[in-house]
């Protein structure tokens, strides 16, 4: 019913630089069941973020589907050393990359191990992500966790380029890239360009911790990001702080 209703960010499976030392790879669609309606598979465009650390090593955030040509082009840039699951929804392609780069450390977001087991997807995680960057990338990236009830999201900030990396806490779909009936669902979730935000159904699971989330967002704002890479929809390349304040107004109200 929903197949091919979302236009991809072409070209896919190709590294696209965003700033010095950081870029993205747009991937194919994935299909996720709508909560409570397992028969309804909704398409999502995918996006991986690639950071070249000051060590020359590569850090892969939310890997898209593994492709040999893509992997070869990344290898030419540096050694793949870190593979990241930023939340419990983003892990499906991690093992494909880990199998081809066995020397890389695979990092688990909070509770993703249990989620993968329940979904019958085998992923071998090596380390767990926390609220502070580990030694492997602390000179290049900051990190912090936005807490929720069904999931937490680990947020990263590339300091050299002042780029914030989000996954599902802001989605920014372009309605003109979406056909019906999915366009209506995105519109109803209020997660669309130019005012991207967390979909209202997902936001409801963060509301019980909105005070803690608000404190985290204040910390993120203090980093003064100049652009925001998103996993779903159009990235935010201008007025990023204003976009953050608007998208997280539900949490920041607690801080006023």
Q: Give me the CATH architecture, please.
A: 4-Layer Sandwich
The secondary structure category is alpha/beta
pLDDT below 50 for ≥5 consecutive residues: which ranges? none
Q: Percent of residues in beta strands? A: 25-35%
Return the domain count: 1
Task: Please identify the top-level CATH class.
Answer: Alpha Beta
Helix count, DSSP H or I runs of 4 or more residues: 8
Percentage of residues in helical conformation:
10-25%
Helix and strand pattern = EEEEHEHEHEEEEHHHEHH
Shape: globular
Radius of gyration: 17 Å
What's the name of the CATH homologous superfamily?
Ribonuclease Z/Hydroxyacylglutathione hydrolase-like
Strand order of the largest sheet: 1-2-3-4-5-6-7
Oligomeric description of these chains = single chain
Largest sheet: 7 strands, mixed
Number of strands: 11
Under CATH, the topology is which?
Metallo-beta-lactamase, Chain A
Mean pLDDT: 94
The separation of the N and C termini measures 45 Å
Q: How would you summarize what this structure contains?
A:
With 256 residues, the protein is of the alpha/beta class. Helix content is 24%, strand content 26%. It has a single domain, classed as Ribonuclease Z/Hydroxyacylglutathione hydrolase-like (Metallo-beta-lactamase, Chain A).
């Amino acid at each position: 019913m929903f197949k091919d209703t979302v236009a991809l960010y072409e070209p896919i499976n190709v590294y696209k630089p965003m700033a010095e030392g950081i870029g993205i790879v747009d991937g194919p669609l994935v299909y996720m069941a709508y909560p409570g309606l397992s028969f309804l598979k909704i398409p999502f465009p995918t996006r991986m973020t690639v950071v070249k650390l000051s060590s020359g090593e590569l850090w892969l955030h939310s890997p898209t589907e593994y492709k040999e040509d893509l992997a070869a082009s990344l290898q030419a840039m540096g050694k793949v050393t870190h593979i990241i699951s930023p939340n419990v929804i983003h892990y499906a392609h991690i093992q494909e990359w880990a199998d081809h780069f066995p020397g890389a450390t695979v990092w688990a977001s909070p509770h993703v191990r249990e989620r993968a087991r329940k979904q019958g997807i085998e992923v071998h995680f090596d380390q767990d992500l926390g609220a502070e960057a580990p030694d492997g990338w602390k000179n290049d990236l900051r990190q912090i966790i936005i807490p929720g009830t069904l999931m937490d999201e680990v947020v990263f900030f590339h300091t050299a380029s002042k780029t914030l990396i989000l996954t599902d806490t802001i989605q920014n779909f372009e309605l003109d890239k979406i056909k019906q009936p999915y366009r209506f669902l995105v519109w109803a979730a209020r997660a669309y360009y130019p005012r991207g935000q967390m979909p209202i159904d997902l936001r409801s699971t963060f509301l019980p911790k909105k005070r803690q989330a608000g404190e985290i967002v204040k910390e993120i704002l203090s980093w003064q990001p100049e652009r925001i890479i998103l996993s779903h929809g159009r990235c935010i390349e201008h007025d990023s702080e204003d976009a953050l304040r608007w998208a997280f107004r539900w949490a920041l109200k607690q801080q006023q």
